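Field log, afternoon session.

UNIT: design team B
ACTIVITY: writing a sequence onto a fixed backbone
BACKBONE:
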């Protein structure tokens, strides 16, 4: 029992320590910069500027973020990418997942054309999906598009090649459509403004 409690204590410290240390460092930097700058302002100009420490802290954190990104993160990403590219199977799996995740949240989001597709010509059955490719000439297919249908309660889906006449573009936010499909229609979204 005591061993379990000790393990929980250690795990709690491991979870809280990085956050606590980060908060303390930010607080210490703020107090140091605010005190130093305010002393210099009073010494040279005879007045204080409220909030100067916060402004200085923001500039400092932006600078640290820039240095971390350009000097540390980007070079490490390049090394990691070169290692992955040198292993064929690993490169295939990594690039497939990387493309999938960037399609959801990256700068080149692919799921930005929501559509309603008639999937059964004998009934009014329709599915919500997203056009992912409109030009399928590389497959030798004309007058059809690639439509991705996400599964509800899951982040998997199916890709269908669909005739254009069965597609109805939707004039709604694509993120709202994705949430609606993934939640099996249980999520709500704001109604479009007139």
């Amino acid at each position: 029992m005591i061993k379990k409690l000790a393990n929980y204590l250690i795990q709690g410290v491991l979870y809280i320590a990085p956050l606590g240390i980060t908060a303390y460092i930010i607080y210490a930097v703020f107090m140091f910069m605010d005190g130093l700058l305010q002393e210099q302002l009073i010494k040279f100009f005879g007045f204080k500027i409220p909030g100067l420490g916060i402004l200085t802290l923001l500039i400092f954190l932006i600078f640290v973020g820039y240095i971390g990104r350009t000097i540390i993160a980007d070079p490490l990403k390049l090394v990691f990418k070169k290692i992955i590219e040198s292993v064929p199977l690993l490169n295939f799996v990594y690039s497939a997942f990387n493309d999938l995740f960037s399609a959801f949240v990256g700068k080149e989001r692919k799921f930005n054309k929501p559509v309603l597709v008639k999937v059964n010509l004998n009934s009014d059955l329709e599915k919500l999906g997203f056009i992912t490719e409109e030009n399928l000439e590389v497959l030798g297919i004309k007058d059809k598009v690639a439509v991705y249908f996400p599964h509800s309660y899951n982040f998997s889906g199916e890709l269908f090649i669909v005739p254009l006449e069965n597609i109805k573009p939707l004039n709604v936010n694509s993120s709202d459509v994705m949430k609606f499909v993934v939640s099996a229609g249980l999520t709500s979204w704001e109604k479009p403004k007139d």
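LOG NOTE: The chain has two domains: 2-86, 110-182.
NEXT ACTIVITY: expression trials, pending approval
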